[in-house]
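Problem: given the chain below (181 residues), write out its structure.
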Amino acid sequence: MAKFGPKAHVLINNAALFVFESVETASGEDWDRSAAVNIKGHALATKHCIPLMKARYLATHIQLHALPSYSCRPCDDHKPVSVRMCGRMRGLMNDQAAGGGSIVFQGSISSFKGQPNCATYATAKGAIVQLARNCAFDLSKYNIRCNSICAGTIEVGECVLFGRCVSASYIANNKVCQPVV
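Solution.
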């Protein structure tokens, strides 16, 4: 994360590990591997990105409060009129309004809908949705937005779901989305 410096505006957590086992057949190792990638991976990437986004917000916040309320710092389109904001100050205001950043968690429709032999994956994705909610509460004061995307199955050519070719009957009996072209 350090190589991105204070310019880390967006983090997209999109790691996933599929373990195709039921609660009955999944081993302890299956649960550990699924949690390590699907939960811990998202949490640690977020943890290490938060200080960069906080620093970005705090730097913007400090710059805004350092400006006198009746004018702005000199810049190319500076006009010494108290009501008018110059481009630089408008940019700072927009930067603060936009926030310290945005964190996107890749959840899944599996968080809400049971599927056969997907216990470890669905459980982990449910945890991701809750992680996004908790991060949103904790980070909103720094204008860091946190959201989760919970997509479903998308049919593309030969539809492959969970590493297996999906039959036409599966598509007919389940909500499978068509790609937007």
